[in-house]
Amino acid sequence: MTPGTVVLLHAPNATAASWGDLPEMLRSYGFDVVAPDVPDETGPRYIARVSLIITATDPAVPLVLVAHGAAGPLLPGIALAQRAAHRPIAGFAFVDADLPHRGQHDHGAPENDLPMAPDWPEAPCGYLRTHADRSASSDHEEAVREARLRGWAVTDHDPPTTVAQSLTELITAM
Predict the structure, then answer these.
(1) pLDDT score at 110
(2) In CATH, what number is assigned to the domain containing residue 9?
(3) Residue by residue, what is the 3-state secondary structure of the chain?
(4) pTM (2 decimals)?
């Protein structure tokens, strides 16, 4: 798959700086990259702010939405907002991320359940597990197992390969 724009979504309560040099490395591979910086929002407010930033960048379509950590469960809501804005989604990539589940609640935003379109996922999905994450959380091991059960592409990042190269391979495989 060749995306129009890769949108890198950091975990809520983090910043876009958490992606390190990944945005620039992906640009060097020829991708158009948007990395919204939404440090102080969670849940529906995060979705709204990210959607406004994506709109302001006037991205090339289709989009590939890439989530890290706790941004994973927010992908269906972000995708729903992008579809409402007539921006098609080409794929979803989870990087050491939690997976969305129906009826999931974002405990950082107790006022609302997270939105999820009835046909989610409407595009191919993939999961990238980085070397740094392998000892970090059994939750992510469960996410990898669930991704495989769903038939998603799963890539294990192994240094010295760069994360950008592993993510590019995952996006291509989706």
Answers:
(1) 42
(2) 3.40.50.1820
(3) CCCCEEEEECCCCCCHHHHCCHHHHHHHCCCCEECCCCCCCCHHHHHHHHHHHHHHHCCCCCEEEEEEECCHHHHHHHHHHHHHCCCCEEEEEEEEECCCCCCCECCCCCCCECCCCCCCCCCCEEEEECHHHCCCCHHHHHHHHHHHHCCCEEEECCCCCCHHHHHHHHHHHC
(4) 0.89
Work out whether the CA dihedral 80, 5, 33, 94 comes out positive or negative.
positive
Q: What is the count of structural domains for the chain?
A: 1
The span from the CA of 154 to the CA of 93, in Å, is 10
Per-residue pLDDT of 145-158, as tens digits, reads: 999 999 999 998 88
For the CA atoms of 44, 100, 140, 25, the dihedral, rounded to the nearest 10 degrees, stands at -70
